[in-house]
Specification:
The longest helix is centred in the C-terminal third of the chain and has 34 residues, at 600-633. 53% of the residues lie in helices and 12% in strands. It is globular and about 95 Å long. It has 29 helices and 15 strands. The strands form 3 sheets. Strands 2, 3, 4, 5, 6, 7, 8, 9, 10, 11 and 12 form an 11-stranded antiparallel β-sheet that branches. It has a two-stranded antiparallel ribbon with strand order 1-13. A two-stranded antiparallel sheet has the order 14-15.
C-alpha cells in the first residue's frame, strides 16, 4: 500500500476500472432496467360490485417477462374502511408468493393504485392476484374482453364466478433490461467520458511535484468519498425518510449500526500501516511476518496454494448445497461437485514440472476424448424426465474419473521413481494419530452397511493425504486450509447480504445460506472458532504492543472477521451452537494465555476484552446491514421448505413488519435462549383499523363498530386463532376456501403469534429447535416432560432409544425406533450415531479419534509459536467434538466434516520443515 506509482498512471487506472465496471453493468450484466407496461387492451366498461369480507376478486394472467415490478389496479371507490389486501399466487406450483396490504384511504380515488411486487417470474407461467379486504369495502374498475389485444391477460373472477365479458382494469409493470440501442448509446457515452477524464488527469499531473503517489493514498482518494456517500444515503433513508422502519427503537439501532459500519470502513481505508508494530513484530521473531504470506514459496507454489484455497471454499459451497437439497437427484449432483473440488485440491499439490508433464497432458487429452464419447453414448434424450439433471450427474462422474485417473497415474509414477532411486522419499513420517485415522477409514469401508458416503469420504481424503505428504507445500497446509475456510465465510456473508432476507416471521431465526438453523449453527461454529483462533493468536503475538492505537491496528482485521461471524451465530438463536462456540472459545483463550508464560494474565485479559468488544461493535453493524441491504437489492432467495411470511417475500417492500426488528429479536432471544416468555409484539399492517386500546374501529366489511371488539393484534386468545386456522385448512374444501378467501395459512398463524401468547408454540416456527432436515419430530418435548429433557428438546429419549439398539457391526437402516413406534431420523449425537451405523467398535474408535485429535492439535499449537493459524486445528476439532454431543455432524457433505477432514493432516504427519 505504500508503494509509489506515477500519479497519472494511478488515476488513469482508477478511471479505467470505474469505466469498465459501469460498461459491464450495462452489458453483459444488464443491471440497469426499464419498466415495460402491459395492459389488456380493452375499453373501460364499468366496475365490480363491492369487494368485502365475503366477496373477493381474482385476475389470472400469464407472465410475459421474468420480473414483475408492480401492478397498477384501477380502484373506483373506497366505500367503507381503509385497507385492500392482495395475495399473489404462483398457480403452476400452487403457492403464495407474496401478500401486501394497501391503505386506500391514502390514495387518490378514483384512480390507479400501485401495488409493489418485485417478484421473479417464469416467462409463460400462470399467476393469479387475489383482492380481498382488511375490514373494508371497495370497488375495482373493469375493462371489456372484446377488443382486448393481450392474450396474456386471463380470466377474471368475482366471488369464484368467472366474469366472461370483463378483465380487471389494470397495468402490469414488468422490469426489463434496457433496449439494445439505449445500452449501446450509454456504453459509448461512458467510454467517451472515461477517455475525457483520463485526458484531464494527464493535464493535471504534468507538474513534476505531482508525478508520484502511494497506492494507499489513491485508495483513500477514491474510496473515502464513496463510503461517505453510501453512509449518507443509507442514514437519510433510515431517518428522516423512515424507509426501513418507523419505530424509534429500530431507527436508533439502525443508525448506530450504520455509524459503526461507517467508522469501520473509514478506519480500514485510512489507518496507518507503518508504525511501531513492525519493530515489535521483529522482536517477537514471528516467521509469518518475516516471510510474508505463505513464507518463501516460489511464485508458482503461491499461485497453486491460492487456487487450492478457492477449491476448498467451493467444496464447502457444494457441501452447503447438499445440506439444502431435498431430493436424491440433487444430492447426487452436489455430492459429485464437492468431491470434484476436493480432488482438484489434491491435483494442485503437483509441482510445476509434474502438472505440465507429458503424462498429464496425454491423460487429460485421452480422458477428455473418452469422456466426450462416453457422455454422448449414454446421455438421456430431451424427451426423458429430468434429462438435464441426469446428464449433469453423468458429466460430473466422468470428470471425477478423469481427475482420479490423473492422480492415480501420478502416484504410480512417484512410486516408480522411488524404486529407481530417481526420487527422494518424503522425510515426513506418519504419527500414531495418523495410523488411527487409517484404521477408522478402514472401518468406514468394511462396516459400511449400505452406506457408500463413508467409502467415498475415506477414499477421497486418503488420496489427498497421501499426495499431500509427498508435496513440498505440505508444510503450509494449515495456512492453505484456513485460507479456504476464510474465503468461504466471506463468500457466504456476501451472498447473504445480497439475497437472504432477515425475516422475523414465521421463522425468526436466521439460517444464512441453509434452510435449517441446525446446520447453520454447525457451520458457524467452525467459522467462529476458526476466527477466534486467528484473533487470539494475533492478541498473543501483539502482547508487547503497549499503545492502544497500534494494538487496534494490529488486530482489527481479525476483530472484524470474528465479530461479524459471531453476530451471525447470535442471529441463529441456537442454544447448541452457542454452547459449542462459547466453550471452544473459552478453552482457546485459556490455552493461548497459558502458552505466553509470564504474559499469561495480560494475554488472558486482552483476549477476553477483544472478543467481547468485537461482538459488541459488530452485532449492531451486521444486524443493520443484513436487515436493509437484501431488501434494497430486492432479489430474495427462499428455499422450498423455508418459512417466511408471504408479506416479507417481495422485492419492493422495505418496511414490512414481518422483517426482523429489534423488538422481535429481543422477544425471540428471551424465549429461545433465556427460557422466559416472549414479549408482546403489537405491530400490524393495518394500524388504522384499531383504536389506542387495540379495539376494532370497523367490522369485517368496514362499518364503524360500537362497543369493545378486541382485535387480533392485542388481547386475543392465540389458541383460538390457531384453532381457527386449523379448522380453515381442514376438511375436503379447505384448499378451495383458502383460495376463495385469499387467506394464507401462515398469515393467520402469524396473527396468533403476534399476540405473544406463551401457549402458541404449535404455530410459531421460530420456537422450533434445530432439526436435521426440513422437519424434526423431536424438536419440542412433551408439555409435562421433566425440565432437563424439555430443555434438550427430547434428545435424551432419542439417545436412550439409539443406545438400546447398539451392536458390534452396525445397522443397514439409519433410524432407531422410539418406544411409541416413531422412527427417529438420527441420534442427535454424532458418537452414538457412528456407533449405531458402523458398530460399537467403530464408535469407540471415532470417539478416540476426536479426543486424541484435540490433544494432538493442542500439542501442535504449543510447538508452532510462529504460526498465526497454529490454533485453528485445535479450534475446529474441539468445536466439532462439542457440537457432536447434541447433533449428527459427521457425514461426507456436512460442512463440519469437510473442515475436520481438511485439517486432520496437520497432526497426522510429522513436519519436514517449519510450518507457518
Amino acid at each position: 500500500m505504500n508503494r509509489e506509482v506515477k500519479k497519472f498512471h494511478a488515476f488513469a487506472f482508477v478511471i479505467a476500472v470505474i469505466t469498465f465496471a459501469i460498461i459491464i453493468s450495462i452489458f453483459p450484466l444488464r443491471i440497469w432496467n426499464d419498466i415495460r407496461t402491459e395492459v389488456g387492451g380493452g375499453t373501460e366498461n364499468g366496475c365490480t360490485q363491492g369487494i368485502d369480507s365475503t366477496h373477493d376478486a381474482i385476475q389470472d394472467f400469464v407472465a410475459q417477462y421474468d420480473r414483475i415490478d408492480s401492478i397498477s389496479v384501477y380502484v373506483n371507490e373506497l366505500t367503507k374502511g381503509r385497507y385492500m389486501h392482495i395475495t399473489f399466487w404462483d398457480v403452476d406450483n400452487w403457492r403464495v408468493m407474496y401478500e401486501e396490504t394497501i391503505d386506500l384511504a391514502a390514495k387518490e380515488l378514483p384512480g390507479y393504485v400501485d401495488i409493489p411486487l418485485g417478484l421473479d417470474l417464469e416467462v409463460g407461467g400462470n399467476y393469479r392476484i387475489i383482492f380481498t379486504v382488511w375490514h373494508a369495502t371497495y370497488v375495482l374498475g373493469t375493462e371489456s374482453v372484446e377488443g382486448s389485444t393481450n392474450p396474456a391477460i386471463g380470466a377474471f373472477y368475482y366471488q369464484d364466478t368467472m366474469v366472461e365479458e370483463s378483465h380487471l382494469l389494470a397495468k402490469y409493470n414488468y422490469k426489463v433490461p434496457m433496449a439494445k440501442t439505449m445500452s449501446l448509446t450509454l456504453m459509448i457515452m461512458v467510454f467517451m467520458i472515461g477517455c475525457a477524464l483520463t485526458g484531464v488527469t494527464r493535464t493535471l499531473c504534468k507538474e513534476a511535484r505531482n508525478q508520484y503517489i502511494t497506492i494507499g493514498r489513491v485508495c483513500q482518494f477514491v474510496l473515502n468519498p464513496i463510503v461517505i456517500l453510501i453512509y449518507a444515503v443509507l442514514a437519510v433513508m433510515v431517518f428522516p425518510l423512515k424507509t426501513f422502519d418507523d419505530r424509534a427503537a429500530d431507527i436508533c439501532f439502525y443508525e448506530l449500526g450504520l455509524i459503526l459500519a461507517f467508522i469501520t470502513a473509514i478506519y480500514v481505508i485510512n489507518h496507518k500501516r507503518k508504525d511501531s508494530i513492525v519493530t515489535v513484530l521483529k522482536s517477537c521473531d514471528l516467521a509469518s511476518d518475516k516471510k510474508g504470506f505463505l513464507g518463501n514459496m516460489p511464485l508458482f507454489d503461491k499461485v497453486m496454494s491460492c487456487i487450492q484455497m478457492v477449491f476448498i471454499a467451493l467444496s464447502l459451497v457444494y457441501a452447503a448445497q447438499y445440506m439444502n437439497d431435498l431430493y436424491d437427484i440433487y444430492h447426487s449432483i452436489s455430492e459429485r461437485q464437492m468431491v470434484l473440488c476436493l480432488l482438484l485440491v489434491t491435483v494442485c499439490f503437483q509441482s510445476k514440472k509434474e502438472l505440465i508433464s507429458l503424462q498429464n497432458i496425454v491423460l487429460t487429452i485421452i480422458g477428455a476424448a473418452s469422456g466426450f464419447y462416453y457422455y454422448h453414448q449414454n446421455k438421456l434424450p430431451v424427451s426423458e424426465k429430468e434429462y438435464d439433471l441426469h446428464n449433469l450427474i453423468l458429466k460430473l462422474t466422468i470428470a471425477i474419473v478423469v481427475v482420479a485417473a490423473i492422480l492415480l497415474a501420478d502416484y504410480i509414477r512417484y512410486l516408480f521413481r522411488l524404486g529407481t532411486k530417481k526420487a527422494v522419499r518424503s522425510s515426513a513420517s506418519i504419527t500414531i494419530y495418523g495410523i488411527f485415522v487409517i484404521v477408522f477409514f478402514a472401518c468406514l469401508i468394511i462396516l459400511r452397511n449400505t452406506r457408500w458416503w463413508g467409502v467415498v469420504l475415506a477414499l477421497v481424503f486418503a488420496v489427498m493425504y497421501i499426495r499431500m505428504n509427498s508435496a513440498d507445500r505440505s508444510a503450509h497446509w494449515n495456512t492453505i486450509a484456513t485460507g479456504g475456510l476464510i474465503l468461504n465465510i466471506i463468500y457466504t456473508i456476501g451472498y447473504c447480504l445480497l439475497f437472504r432476507y432477515f425475516t422475523g416471521f414465521v421463522m425468526g431465526r436466521y439460517s444464512m445460506q441453509f434452510h435449517t438453523v441446525t446446520v447453520t449453527a454447525e457451520y458457524l461454529t467452525i467459522m467462529q472458532v476458526m476466527a477466534a483462533a486467528l484473533l487470539l493468536a494475533k492478541v498473543a503475538s501483539g502482547s508487547k504492543i503497549s499503545g492502544l492505537k497500534d494494538f487496534i491496528a494490529y488486530v482489527f482485521k481479525e476483530m472484524i472477521l470474528f465479530g461479524v461471524i459471531s453476530a451471525y451465530m447470535i442471529f441463529t438463536l441456537s442454544r447448541t451452537g452457542y454452547l459449542a462456540a462459547i466453550v471452544t472459545i473459552i478453552v482457546l483463550i485459556l490455552m493461548v494465555a497459558l502458552r505466553e508464560g509470564r504474559d499469561a494474565g495480560k494475554t488472558l485479559l486482552r483476549g477476553v476484552l477483544v472478543c467481547i468488544v468485537s461482538v459488541v461493535i459488530a452485532f449492531p453493524m451486521t444486524f443493520t446491514l443484513q436487515r436493509i441491504i437484501p431488501v434494497m437489492v430486492g432479489h430474495p432467495y427462499f428455499y422450498e421448505v423455508e418459512d417466511a411470511a408471504p408479506s416479507a417475500r417481495g422485492g419492493r417492500d422495505f418496511d414490512d413488519y414481518k422483517y426482523m426488528s429489534v423488538e422481535r429479536f429481543y422477544s425471540l432471544f428471551r424465549q429461545k435462549i433465556l427460557g422466559v416468555s416472549a414479549t408482546e409484539y403489537n405491530f400490524v399492517d393495518d394500524p388504522y383499523n384499531y383504536d389506542e386500546n387495540g379495539n376494532y374501529l370497523y367490522d369485517e366489511d368496514g362499518n364503524p363498530v360500537t362497543g369493545e371488539v378486541i382485535g387480533y393484534h392485542m388481547g386475543t386468545d392465540a389458541d383460538m386463532c390457531a384453532d381457527s386456522y386449523i379448522d380453515k385448512m381442514s376438511g375436503d374444501d379447505g384448499a378451495g376456501r383458502l383460495i376463495a378467501s385469499s387467506t394464507d395459512g401462515m398469515y393467520v398463524a402469524e396473527a396468533a403469534i403476534v399476540v405473544g401468547s406463551e401457549n402458541s408454540d404449535v404455530l410459531d416456527d421460530s420456537s422450533f429447535e434445530e432439526g436435521d432436515e426440513a422437519f424434526d419430530d423431536s424438536e419440542e418435548g412433551e408439555e409435562n416432560a421433566e425440565a432437563v429433557d424439555d430443555y434438550s428438546n427430547g434428545r435424551i429419549d432419542i439417545w436412550k432409544a439409539y443406545i438400546k439398539e447398539l451392536n458390534l457391526t452396525g445397522h443397514d437402516e439409519m433410524g432407531a425406533v422410539a418406544e411409541d413406534g416413531e422412527l427417529l431420523a438420527h441420534a442427535h449425537n454424532v458418537y452414538i450415531q457412528v456407533a449405531y451405523d458402523h458398530g460399537i467398535i467403530a464408535g469407540i474408535l471415532f470417539g478416540f479419534l476426536i479426543v486424541a485429535g484435540i490433544a494432538f492439535s493442542g500439542v501442535y499449537y504449543f510447538r508452532n509459536k510462529g504460526s498465526f493459524a497454529a490454533a485453528v486445528p485445535f479450534a475446529v476439532i474441539t468445536g466439532f467434538a462439542i457440537a457432536g454431543l447434541t447433533e449428527w455432524n459427521f457425514q461426507l457433505c456436512n460442512p463440519m466434516t469437510v473442515a475436520l477432514m481438511l485439517l486432520l493432516p496437520v497432526i497426522m504427519f510429522k513436519r519436514r520443515k517449519k510450518d507457518i
